Amino acid sequence: MLSDSFFLHLLKAFLVVSVFPLVIAGIISCVSFYNVSFEYAVSYSNKKSELVALQINMLQDVNEKITNSLHNSSMMQLEMRSGLYGHTHTMEDLFKINEALSYIKNSSVSGIEGIYCIKKNGTVYQSNTTAVYKYFNTDVQWYQDVQEKQQGIWLSPYKHSLVTPALEGNYVAYLCPYLDYITGEMNGVVLIEMDCDEIWEILRKDSEKDSTQYSILNQENHVIYTTDSDQRKATEEMLDENKFSYVEELNNGWKIVSNISKTEIFLSVVKSLIILFTILLLVCFSIIIIVSIKKANEISMPIKKLTESTKLVQRGQYDVQMDIPNTSGEIVELYQNFNKMIVALQKYTSKIIEEQKKLRLANYKALQAQINPHFLYNTLDSINWMAIEKEEYEISRMLRNLGVILRYSVNQSNQMASVSEV
Fold first, then answer.
1. Residue 389 and residue 391: Cα distance in Å, rounded?
2. Model-level pTM greater than 0.85?
3. Non-local CB neighbours of 385 within 8 Å, separated by 6+ positions
4. Cβ(38)–Cβ(300) under 8 Å?
5. How far apart are CA 178 and CA 191, in angstroms?
6. CA distance 250 to 154
7. pLDDT attached to residue 230
8. How far apart are CA 340 and CA 335, in angstroms?
């Protein structure tokens, strides 16, 4: 059985060997991982912003090329001029214009949903309908803004087509005044509607995982799109000092703002490190327990064998010999001393047995030396009485004298005496 003190020492060893180093390593790793994660988040968000900027700038270039081609088209110039300065047009001309716009749309990049040329009188030339005759109310604000600014503008995202409200989607629009190359006056507006879902999807993808909130600002720095559902919150977070902001300027005057949350990155790193170091602690603790139990058994087993051998010696088995383990340290020395003790004990026991044998032999000889004279004396005494019975008194006298000499020799064996004294 392993004692409580053993587990207490094991716990101390675990704290010293595993916990404290891992805590220090965790702090260092947290700082390092945070820096790496933050740099990765900045790099990743910059790439996403640059990709969206590339898409919008490409659409800007395409829109300008489309409007330039429409401005340079003599047929389009005549159609936009017709009905304004005494010029007239036919249905065949309208059909040709719509067909040309449809061809431009289809041969352009993906994302262009519709191309419209809207004259000041409301006549609409469009690419996405078979209808050849349609009128539009030019009193809307965006039409007046183009007419006032006399330059291309972008409209913020909206849900329904400006010209064909029945068409629903996520649109952005590019508006450009259509100028008569003879008079220089604005004859209408070129409207190009684009699907912005593909652009927004680039920003939405993995935006939660990379701890970045993306926003698109228009020319007035108003948030027109954000990956955060709360636009007011998104606007406030752009001013948060705990967030890193990256701004990408677009050719159309918009801005893409990437707000990277330092707090979220830090918490994410800490959470990951806690999980990692918890696993490492469990692994280290398991290894320490296994190694400690193995080492404890390596120490306790030799001691247990030594205890069993000691009990055999107590029962009188002095021929016990311990096999020296193939290790080093106190256990080997203890085994060697035990074997030396057994050898010494065997010699001492043998010596005692030998001395006891000699003592018994001496006692026997001494007893034998005492028994022989007495036996002879008793024999002579018996013969004496037999001689008396047969009235052999001379023989009896001689036997008594011989008995006296024997008794004297037994009692006074160590003293010198003459025959006359006896």
1. 5
2. no
3. none
4. no
5. 10
6. 12
7. 59
8. 9
